[in-house]
Amino acid sequence: MHAVYPLLLGALLFAVGLYGVLARRNAITVLMAIELLLNAVTVNLVAFGALLRDRFNTGQVFTLFVITLAAAETGLGLAIVLMIYRQRGNAQIDGQRELAEPLGGPRDELQPGAGAPAVGPDAEVEDEPAAGRALEPTKAAR
Q1: Which member of 16, 21, 23, 41 has the lowest number of beta carbons within 10 Å of its beta carbon?
Q2: Membrane-spanning residues where (predicted)?
């Protein structure tokens, strides 16, 4: 058997997986595209291992490592996606720019930025710190 056929299949799988990673917006489809990329690598490793016919079967050994890596990536990736889906209600990648939990609890999820301090170059600088304002009522009581 010629080595062209499995190598062509591996290149085709890699191209489809790369398109899926770059063009898709759903996290589950991106994970599936990453799996296609890893499967393309395994096909190429087995094809080159059969082509070179070395004594130690390094193509097959590296294929086992890639399969193990793919299984771990799938488990962790799906766990992360499920946590994000439970917390935010969708698995779209574009909407997940901010992965931190809201600071003020459930109210912040409904009103992002409510009660959050302004940070940035055009944020207003307070003259008096908040601790100083908190002591004003006690000074007035004396």
Answers
A1: 23
A2: 33-52, 64-85
